[in-house]
Amino acid sequence: MYNLYNPLIQKIEVLKLEKRLDEELYYLRDALPEYSTIPFNMESVPLPPGAEVPLNRIKVKLRPPPWSKRWELSNCKGLACVWDVLSEQRKDTLI
């Protein structure tokens, strides 16, 4: 996270513009690295002017708990099945 104004930042370039299934993407903090990182040498993907922003429908898989939030209780559309990652003991407390 960067401040809105920081004299050290000379420019910000958008490499790829896309929408996600959810408005808030806090679950990316607890996701596997391939869902929340980009390659250092990624080329920009230009979007024609006036074109609709594409929707990324990928379902994100989480790392094993502990998590920063109780994602099994949230209603996030962009998460893969969270129940697969939970331990049997934690599943029993929720049922």
Automatic annotation (TrEMBL):
Lineage: Eukaryota, Metazoa, Ecdysozoa, Nematoda, Enoplea
Organism: Romanomermis culicivorax
Family: Belongs to the bacterial ribosomal protein bL19 family.
Keyword Repeat: no
Domain of life the protein comes from: Eukaryota
Protein name: Large ribosomal subunit protein bL19m
SUPFAM superfamilies xref list: Translation proteins SH3-like domain
GO cellular component terms given for this protein: mitochondrial large ribosomal subunit
Keywords: Ribonucleoprotein, Ribosomal protein
Single GO MF annotation: structural constituent of ribosome
Statement: the UniProt record of this protein carries the keyword Ribonucleoprotein: yes
GO biological process: translation
